[in-house]
Every structure is written in C-alpha cells, then in structure tokens.
Amino acid sequence: MLCGGSLSTVAALHLDAGELMNILVTGGAGFIGSNLLRHVVRARPGDRFVNLDRLTYAGNLANLAEIEDAPNYRFVQGDICDGQLLAALFEDEAIGGVIHLAAESHVDRSILGPGEFVRTNVQETLALLEAARAAWARRGTAGRFHHVSTDEVYGSLGDTGLFTEDTPYSPNSPYSASKAASDHLVRAWHHTYGMDTVITNCSNNYGPWQFPEKLIPVMICKARDGEPLPVYGDGGNVRDWLHVQDHCEAIDLAFREGRAGRTYNVGGDNEWRNIDIVHAICDAVDERLGAQPQGPRRRLVTFVGDRPGHDRRYAIDASRMRGELGWTPRYTFERGLRETVGWYLDAGEWLAACMDGSYREYFERNYANKMG
C-alpha cells in the first residue's frame, strides 16, 4: 500500500557535498525516526525523503503531522520484507541513500517475544540491504546505507570504562542480539560487496514523541498521575543518556560525512543511575504541578524484581564522532530532562491517544484519500 504525493523527478546523486539525493528512511513514524524527519525535511528542502514504516504499535503518524504535506516528503506504509515493494520504491523514487531506523527496540518485549525482534531487526535488514544492492547495481550508482544501532550490542560494563567502536560485541538480551546480528550483516555487505555503509551505535535516547513504554515517559506519566513508580532491582543500573535531537543531528552528519565502512558511537557523555533519573523526574513534576497532599512524588518509588539479563552499566566513548565529524551534543541532561518533562505534561491528548490506541486512526483520517 503506497501513500503520499507524486513521484520525485530528482535523480539520485552521489554523496558529494552540496548534491541532492532521494533518501529512504525506514521506521520514520517511530520515536527517533519522526524526530529525524521533522529535522531533515525542513533543513534540507532540496533532498526528498521517503518514509517507509509498517506502522506497528510504536509507529504514530501524528508525530509527523507538521511535515506530512511538505513537497519533499512522502509516506509509504509497507513491510520491508516485501521485496516487490522495495524494488518499486528504489526504482520509482530513484533512492540514492538509506537511513535504516526501523527496529523493535524494547528489551522487555524482546524477552516476552524474541521472534518478532529477529524478524524485524535481522530479516528486514537483510531484505533492505539486498534491495539496495540490486537497485544500485542496476543503475550503476554508489548509494549509501546508514544503519542506526545501539550501544547494547556491546554488553555490560563494570564500574569503569567506556564502549569504543573496537569493543567486542557481547549482547545479553534478545533485543541486543538481534541488533548485533543486523550490525554484522551491514558490515559484511560493505566488505563482501563493497557497499558504502555507515553504522552508528547510540546510547539511550530521550525526548519528545517517545512511545510511553520506555523509562522516562513512563515515569513522567505515572508521577503525573500519582501512581507507583516501579524501578528494577536496586535502581543502580547506569545508562548514558542522549537527547533525541542531538542524536538526529549525529545521524544526519554521519550519513552525509561519515567514512564508508566506518562505525561511529554516539553518546551524551552523560551517565545516570536509573534511580537518580526517577528522582529527578519526581522533582521536576513536583515543581511543575506541585507536590501531592501525601508528600513529594519520590515516595512513589517502588523497587521491583530485576528483569532477566539486565545489563548493569552502559557508557559511550564518542570521541570518533567528535574528532572526525565535529559533532557534539547541544543538550545538557538537566535542560533536556526539564524540557522533556514539560513536553509530556503538556501532551495530554497525544498521550491519551497512545494509551487508548486511537492514534492508529490517524492513518485512515489523513491518508485514506492518498492511497493508491
């Protein structure tokens, strides 16, 4: 099922600075994908962006309402494993670059249903690599394939040390194992077939438009409503937090300027224990809404049994991104968390639609007349 405007007449060009390109973004209705598309569609009006998303539970087209009518944007609902669909898209849209974001990403869900993670994260990556390779070979062009991955492929750190691009892979959950497999496929397609690939491995993202199942939006919503705040284990698990806008700038930069075959770690140099983040959220919600009659929201913290295979600490060394590409995060965590808490507290209608499932109706309301 294809939806969107007329096909672009702009030919796919090489990745040289200043030249235009038609770019396929997979998973663009998700958290990171929608933030990326809102950024690049407006920042790069000469490029054309085709958003391919299956619209699983976390895909929300309302996240893209402000760009859905942009002349350089098109949405396509479809399955990456549909070879005919991919072949048609690469041909009709003259796709010259891919930013592959489509993925199942919630560790808890991967523990309950690992098969879907293998299908989405591994099989779809394989299908996309092969479609790109075939299309670019037919046209005699050298497209770029950018695979967006996670720091979780590296496993767990002790109290010290950082993940570098040379850290051996040691995934500990079905989610991270599936992402590690997809990373290996992308690397193999570079070395075996000469495909121009870039991989970025990012730390934990946070910010607006994140589906309310991850730590920060869940805790904001529960703190707002005065519900218990479940924290795994002793709350001492450490993550490196990166604002989604900083990540999107890094993705765009690595896609355009990264070295072929290169991996870049993207992190915020911003380690926090889970319990400290939850406390900071409680304090921010108290500041915004006022403490409850029963007292500050920190009293709502409830420690629960740890999840299986819960990695203790992640931390990223992003010196390659900084040194080679000149990237640096703009957000401090204090500013980013404060703004994120405020965004979710003001996003009552969006959150309600996520909770009751009515966000799924957005497609039929706004795209039915564009189906073809």
Describe this structure in words.
With 372 residues, the protein is α/β, with parallel strands linked by helices. It has a domain at 22-206 and 244-269 and 311-330 and 359-370: Rossmann fold, CATH 3.40.50. The chain contains twelve helices and twelve strands. It has helices at residues 31-43, 83-92, 107-112, 114-139, 174-193, 215-225, 244-257, 274-289, 319-325, 333-346, 348-356, 361-367; strands spanning 22-26, 48-53, 73-77, 97-100, 144-150, 196-202, 204-206, 229-232, 238-243, 262-266, 271-273, 301-304. The strands form three sheets. It has a seven-stranded parallel β-sheet with strand order 3-2-1-4-5-6-10, with helices on both faces. A three-stranded mixed β-sheet has the order 7-9-11. Helix 1 (31-43) links the parallel strand 1 and strand 2. Helix 1 packs across helix 7 (244-257), helix 6 (215-225) crosses helix 8 and helix 6 crosses helix 10. Residues 1-17 have low confidence and may be disordered.
Question: Would you summarize the structure shown here?
Answer:
By secondary structure, the chain is of the alpha/beta class. It is built from twelve helices and twelve strands.
Features:
372 residues, alpha/beta, Rossmann fold, three-stranded mixed beta sheet, 12 helices, disordered N terminus
What's the CATH architecture name of the domain at 22-206 and 244-269 and 311-330 and 359-370? 3-Layer(aba) Sandwich
Q: What's the tally of helices?
A: 12
Question: Can you tell me the CATH class of the domain at 22-206 and 244-269 and 311-330 and 359-370?
Answer: Alpha Beta
Number of extended strands: 12
Shape: globular
Radius of gyration: 20 Å
Main sheet: strand order = 3-2-1-4-5-6-10
The chain-level structural class is alpha/beta
CATH homologous superfamily classification of the domain at 22-206 and 244-269 and 311-330 and 359-370:
NAD(P)-binding Rossmann-like Domain
- End-to-end separation in angstroms reads 7 Å
What's the mean pLDDT score? 91
β-strand percent reads 15-25%
CATH domain topology of the domain at 22-206 and 244-269 and 311-330 and 359-370:
Rossmann fold
Regions with little confidence, pLDDT below 50 for 5+ residues: 1-17
Compressed to H and E, one letter per element, the order equals: EHEEHEHHEHEEHEEHEEHEHHHH
